[in-house]
From TrEMBL:
Origin organism lineage: Eukaryota, Metazoa, Chordata, Craniata, Vertebrata
One Pfam family named in its UniProt record: ParcG
Residue span of region Disordered: 1-53
PANTHER family noted in UniProt: PACRG-LIKE PROTEIN (PTHR21207:SF1), PARKIN COREGULATED GENE PROTEIN PARK2 COREGULATED (PTHR21207)
Biased composition, class Polar residues, residue ranges: 1-11
Biased composition (Pro residues): 28-40
Xref: InterPro entries: ARM-like, ARM-type_fold, Parkin_co-regulated_protein
Name recorded for this polypeptide: PACRL protein
């Protein structure tokens, strides 16, 4: 009888240890799934959590930190058809220094809503009356920031940088010529990429259109194959 008891108790013990094992064995793994999803909601709000994602190519721009602190005077409004920006005050009243430079910094962001706010904000700020007088003094600071966007490995970042460059050229005209050569190297590199060839060619033609005749020589010094729109 005692043998049977031992056996039955042995049988009872074995499932217990198996249960214990099944309870304990997932524990080393369970913290991972528990921890991993947590940063996701804060990704949008806390720029520090974005840092690891961009750390491989380049550090996150100052834009995310300033946006998180409420330092950008506009926000994204989700529309049924398309998104738009809502400004806290009239864009005409916003100082270009440092906001235009900060928005240009944001062009290097790869996460929503920073991507939309920086792109749209940069464009809308340049559309205000008297934008040329406000933007020209900022060119020495804007050009290196645009250059960084044009040098970015992300295609969408490059595209936003190219659009911003054309928008800036339309506003400041020939004033951009002194800085243009710093930006053309990255355009020349991307011309080899079929998907960007047409877009870059159109952008160069617009730079010539807004920059005047002197622009042609500057473009040709970096991109000898460029054909002038006036030729």
């Amino acid at each position: 009888g005692s043998n049977v008891l031992r056996m039955s108790s042995g049988i009872q013990i074995k499932p217990k240890t198996a249960v214990q094992k099944s309870k304990t064995s997932p524990l080393p793994h369970s913290p991972e799934p528990a921890i991993k999803p947590q940063p996701k909601p804060s990704d949008k709000l806390n720029p520090k959590t974005i840092d690891p994602f961009g750390a491989h190519s380049r550090p996150t721009s100052a834009f995310a930190a300033i946006y998180a602190k409420g330092g950008i005077p506009c926000r994204l409004v989700h529309g049924s058809v398309k998104h738009r920006l809502q400004w806290e005050c009239l864009p005409e009243t916003v100082p270009f220094d440092p906001l235009l430079v900060t928005l240009a910094e944001g062009l290097r962001e790869t996460k929503h809503p920073y991507t939309f706010v920086s792109k749209e904000g940069f464009k809308e700020l340049l559309m205000v009356e008297g934008a040329a007088e406000k933007a020209i003094p900022l060119l020495p600071r804007l050009v290196p920031v645009l250059k960084a966007a044009l040098a970015h490995s992300d295609d969408e970042v490059f595209g936003r940088g190219l659009d911003a460059l054309v928008q800036l050229s339309a506003v400041v005209g020939p004033s951009l010529n002194d800085h243009l050569k710093h930006l053309l190297t990255n355009l020349s590199r991307r011309l080899m990429d079929k998907k960007f060839r047409d877009k870059i060619t159109i952008a160069l033609q617009k730079l010539e259109q807004y920059g005047g005749k002197a622009t042609v020589a500057i473009i040709k010094s970096k991109i000898p194959t460029y054909c002038s729109i006036s030729s």
